[in-house]
Amino acid sequence: MKLSQDQIEQFDRDGYLFFPALFSPEEVAPLVEEVPRLYAQQRPENIREKDSDSVRTNFAAHMYSAPFARLARHPRMIEPVRQLLDDDVYMHQFKINGKMAFDGDVWQWHQDYGTWLNDDQMPTPRAMNIAIFLDEVNEFNGPLIFIPGSHKMGALEAGHDTRTTSYPLWTISNDNIRHLVSHGGGLVAPKGPAGSLLMFHSCLVHASTSNLSPWNRVSVYLSLCAVQNHIRRFKRPGYIAHRDFTPITPLPDDCLVNPYPVDLPWKDGTPPAEQQGLQQAA
Ligand code: SIN
Ligand code: MN
Predict the structure, then answer these.
(1) CATH says 5-275 is which class?
(2) Whole-prediction pTM value?
(3) Among 17, 67, 134, 252, which residue is least crowded by beta carbons within 10 Å?
(4) Does the CB atom of residue 211 touch ligand 1 within 6 A?
């Protein structure tokens, strides 16, 4: 999949592109089926919500689940990101966020690059976020909210919030959000069926509210980083911030419906060295 000049200009202006129903129901089905099995596992990669057993986020499924390993190499994502970053890309982070019915908690206002800079020493924002909806996203189940154009501000001042949710995040103050929203950005919350894809800049400011609805809002997030821009610090566990900077080779376009062979190096468990932060830098 190649982006048109119009799409490139739109991405540059707004900081995101939305592709409703980019993947068909047949392509999404094997991913949806796999999620309960992954969430039921007792693995360090499953981070649960503060006040319930519901999974908030599952990390690195592409290392131990065949359907997600194939998704991680899908040309409909890898090719446009390579086009925009003008480099080969590697997987910096891979997560499946639950935002489960009734239990899914908020994601505070943040830029992903804030965390990648402060925790992982990623040199520049030459990295891209992709969200793939595995459930319909509607106005009730906690859609992602963007401030269009906010990526133009670069890395904003952020504070480390270790209290609000079960997952620490570098968050942006309410005063800064008020300023960004009222000075032209406004707010958008792209909604669509399962199989929709969002591509967004690593400096785009975003958040999502809790899910009070009876519908899960499971979404997969790939964070793809330009190989030359790899992280320099390994403070976080390897399953959260990957240390393998090998460029991703895309599979054929039908890889979600045909069982192409994929390596699953963590299928028998997470290697101990990947479960902790390291002093050693890259
Ligand atoms: C994120 O920003 O990393 C996740 C937000 C969400 O899943 O709503
Ligand atoms: Mn984020």
Answers:
(1) mainly beta
(2) 0.96
(3) 252
(4) no
